[in-house]
């Protein structure tokens, strides 16, 4: 039976009130800083049955029960998947051997990530769209990135950051916190999964998408195998995956996906927790009055109410916040008329109900919803929202503050009438969120005024990794030296 449209909104209300416990699921995952290795060893020591079985290892809350015999592993999230695979790979490995395979796989994944020769054009690497200097979001301000064989094709969406994805749970239509198992009242609604619409659960399955997509890297398993075989790291690849790995294109492709997935879980690169806000939470830095005021407005349920979706507080267990509850939600982002796909007035990117995602097609209650992104490192981004329509945080904040009080500022006006929510057909409008700051009408006071918007933006700037605590030794923060990849 299809859940009611209103139901989704109610789930959100509960989600907001339950921010604390929403975080606690992430807590454990986060607490395991060296997550990949720790998990691999946890699996190893506990001798987890069927650890290589992707059904049980398949991320998120599901994995929790599979591994719950082990305290550390109770934190299981997407992160565990490849670590568990690594274990499965060489069953009976010693602790040192597990560390060594993860290390090898991470190093290979990193080289693959920067290797443009994997692409059909020879010009596009993962890093072309996910720049390490920009929180693994694009370096340029284009709404959507060029790709394809001629480097002139584009997709529908802005490239997201790849940081802090380690605790995104597997996609669930009805997400229940693991500590509230069986309690219907805490159904948090559609949650989790990777990409803006949550259509895959694992890094490896995700990497398959850009590698094969005709408007992204446009490659094939055969081409990828040839590229890896000819790469400077071919020897290391053989050492990690076996002397005969290149004999089979599909096996090579799978190994590439696994290495990329493992690399994306390197804690020092992808979830270092080195922002000023982390230092502040740890008592090692003070926020300026503007930043502090911004934080207050961010949390205030009557003002920004941002934290109801972008969780800002430590979990009960003391783990740092992810700045997302990973819920999929509709906030009515305006149509981006600059996107080639939107030249067709009948075309809509409806998020979870399609067209990129196909399993929830015709499920009206999933139309227009996109996964809440983390706001960590958001100040390094140059395009915002799933369609990349805005290019500054000020614009994003004004949208939140004035979407309903001054809709004419965001949506097209024809013959004096505002066409609100112009990127979502009216039959799906019941899916739209109506909590603060989206609880107003024309004539009301905006949730945030210009001075308040400035302060919230100041606060968002404290979420960028790499803050140097004064007095701390430089270099204490794990940085990353990266080869440059030309986009063209
Ligand atoms: C042409 C630009 C482009 C290239 C090249 C590219 N990506 Fe992406 N990436 C995107 C876009 C756009 C999305 C969002 C896709 C969507 O929502 O449908 C994305 C999403 C992701 C996500 C999910 C992030 C999240 O928030 O859930 C991961 C992980 C990822 N990419 C990894 C990779 C890897 C690994 C490679 C190389 C194999 C790669 N990407 C190559 C543009 C790119
Ligand atoms: C009801 C849940 C909810 C609330 C409340 C909320 N957000 Fe969001 N936020 C989202 C979702 C969902 C998206 C992605 C929407 C899309 O692209 O369609 C998003 C996207 C963003 C982005 C763009 C990030 C990126 O990577 O493109 C920023 C910045 C942001 N929110 C900041 C805020 C701030 C600041 C507030 C408070 C004023 C706030 N949000 C309140 C759910 C929420």
Would you write up a description of this structure?
The protein is mainly alpha-helical and 488 residues long. The protein folds into 2 domains: 25-270, Orthogonal Bundle (Cytochrome Bc1 Complex, Chain D, domain 2), CATH 1.10.760.10; 276-463, Orthogonal Bundle (Cytochrome Bc1 Complex, Chain D, domain 2), CATH 1.10.760. It contains 17 helices and 6 strands. The chain has helices at 5-17, 19-31, 35-46, 54-57, 60-67, 80-89, 95-113, 126-129, 203-212, 221-230, 234-241, 249-263, 267-270, 276-281, 289-299, 393-402, 450-460, and strands at residues 146-147, 153-154, 328-329, 370-371, 413-414, 417-418. It has a two-stranded antiparallel sheet with strand order 1-2. Strands 3-4 form a two-stranded antiparallel ribbon. The chain is globular. The termini are far apart. Residues 1-88 and 474-488 have low confidence and may be disordered. The structure holds heme C (2 copies). One heme C binds at residues 12, 160, 304-306, 308-310, 329, 331, 333, 370, 372-373, 375, 378, 381, 384-386, 393, 396-397, 400, 433, 435, 437, 456.
Order of helices and strands: HHHHHHHHEEHHHHHHHEEHEEH
Low-confidence stretches: 1-88, 474-488
> Termini separation (Å)?
49 Å
How can the largest sheet be summarized? Answer: 2 strands, antiparallel
Structural class of the helix and strand makeup?
A: mainly alpha
CATH topology of the largest domain: Cytochrome Bc1 Complex, Chain D, domain 2
What's the structural domain tally?
2
Query: What is the CATH-assigned architecture of the largest domain?
Result: Orthogonal Bundle
The top level CATH class name of the largest domain: Mainly Alpha
Count of helix runs: 17
